[in-house]
Predict the structure.
Amino acid sequence: MGKAWTFGDNMNTDEIIPGRFNITTDPQELARNAFCEVKPEFAKNVRPGDVIVAGQNFGCGSSREHAVIAIKGTQVKCVIASSYARIFFRNAVNLGLPILECPEAVAGIREGDEVEVDLSTGLIHNLSTGATFQARPLPEFVLKIAEAGGIIQFLKHHDFQELMGQTGKK
Amino acid sequence: MGTLVEEIFSRKTGRTVKAGDIILVDVDYIMSHDNTTPLAIKAFREIGKPIYDKQRIVLHLDHAYPAPNILAAENHRKIFDFVKEQDLPYLFTQGICHQVMIEEGFVTPGAVIIGADSHSNTYGALGAFGTGLGSTEIAVAWVTGKCWFKVPETIRIELYGQTQPGVYAKDVMLHLAGLLGMNGATYRSIEFGGEYIENLPIHERIIFSNMSTEIGAKCGLIAADEVTLKYLTEQTPALERTKRPLEAIQPHNPRYEQLLQIDVSDLSPQVACHPDVDNVKPLQEVEGLEIHQVFIGTCTNARYEDLEIVASLLRGKRVHPGVRVIVTPASQRIYKKAMQNGLIETFIDAGCVVTNPGCGACIGRHGGVLAPGERALTTMNRNFIGHMGSPQAEIYLASPATAAVTALTGRITDPRRYL
C-alpha cells in the first residue's frame, strides 16, 4: 500500500530529472532531484511503496536512462500511466522498473489516494475510493525481461533468442 | 512488400515482416556518445560477455566536449580507457554524433542503426532505420549484435507544393509538430514523401527525420532516391564502408495506418513557443518578443547550408548589443568549410561567438547556459523547460533565417522582411 503522486500528460525526461543533474548515475543522488521543477515536494516526501500516476506519453524526450534510474531511486512501487513514450518504456523494462499502462486507473486516482498494486496480476486498487482497475497486460516477451528483473539479469541466464521463442514466428 | 520500415526489416530478417510482428534484428551500427556511453560500459561489465563485433560500435564525444567540468572529463576518460581496453576502431571527436555518422558513411539505405540518443531517428533521412534506445540496450547490442523491435505501423506524410521565400524545411517541420502533437506518432514509423520532400536536398530532409523524435516516432523515414545515392557517393565514404552497391529501397504496396497530405505553398515562418515543441504558432503571432540569446546549432540545423543562410543575413551587419549570439557548427568538416569560405569571418565581424562543433548550448551545461528569466530563440529541435539551463528560462524554436534576423533586432523577427 502506498500513496499516489499524480502528474499530467507528456512528462518529459527533463521534468523527471533535469539534464543538469545527469552528471551522476547514482540512484539516490538522482532521486533527490526527481520531478524537482514540477513537484518540488515530491522528492522529500515520497516513501518506498508509493506509486507515480501520470497521463499520456510519460517519459518522452531524451534516451537517457537517468529518468528511469531516478524513479527507481525513489523506491516507488511502480509507475501507472495512460501511455508511455517508447524509449522510456524500453528503458523501464530493461532496468526492471515496474510500469503499468491503465488510463482508467489514471482517471480514477487522485493525489494522495491510498493505492494497492498487485504487479503479478496488474490489479490496481484505490483504497481511498474502493475502485479497482485492471492494467493492460504486457507483451509476453516483455514480461520475460520484466520477470527476470531487467535485461541484464535476463541475459545472464538466457540466450537473447529465447525472447523470441513464442512470439518470433508470427 | 509493405511500408518502408516493413521493407527494411523484411530484408534484414530475410522473411516478410508486418506491422505488429516482434523481431530480433542484426544491427549494422551501434552508436553512443559521452553522455550515454559510461552507463553502457557499466551495463557491459554487469553482463560480463565479450563484444560481438567491434566494427559495429561507433562512439562519439560531442555532448560536453571539451569537458566543461571534472565529472565530464572523467566520463571522457572512462570512454578513452574502454576504447583502448577493447581495441575499438571508432571513436570520433569531430562534432555532433548524428552529423558525423552521416559524414563518415555509416548511414546507408536499408541499414539498421541504433543509438543511445533520442535523435538517432536522423538516419531515416538517408533511408536507414535509425532509432534511439537507452544505454543498457546499447550494451546488450554490443554483446549480441542484435536488438528486438516491434515492427511499427506507419503514418505517411505527403508534402507537396513549394514554400515561399523566407520559409524553410524547418518551418514545415515545426508546422507538422504543431499539427500532430508531441504524442502524435508515438510508437509509429513516419514516412515522409511527396514532391516537396523529393525536391529537397539531404541537409533539409534531415530536419524531418531528426524532429520525428519530437512527435514520438520510432523512426522518421525518407525513401532513398537518386539524390540520396548521389549525396552518399560524392560526399561520404559510404561505398567503401558497405563494400556493396547502395540501393534505393522503396515501399511496395504499402498499407498505411494514416495518410496525411499537406500543401506547404501558403505556409509562413513558424515558431515553436515555450514550453512545448507542439506549441507552434505562425511567427507573426509572436513577432517582436524580446530575445536574450540566439543559438544557431545542433543536429537539426547547423549544417553548412544553414550557416550560409545565416551568414548571408548577417554579412556587413552587427547583431543587437543586448543579445548573445552563438554559432556552433555541427561538425569539424562544416566548421572548416565555413572558415574556408569566409562564413566564420562574417560571424565574428557581426559580433557572434563561434564555438567548437558539438551539441553546445542545446544540452544546458556549457557553451551558452541561460539565466532565469532569459528567453532564447534557437535552431534546436526541443524546447523542454530547463533544457538550456535555468528552468525559469524560455526557449523558442525556429529556422536559421529567423534566428539570424532575430539576432540583428533582439526581437523575434520575420526573415521575409530581409529578403
About this structure: Residues 4-262 of chain B form a domain with the Aconitase; domain 3 fold (CATH 3.30.499.10). Chain B touches chain A through 55 residues (CB under 8 Å). Chain B has a mean pLDDT of 97. Chain B is about 30% helix and 20% strand.
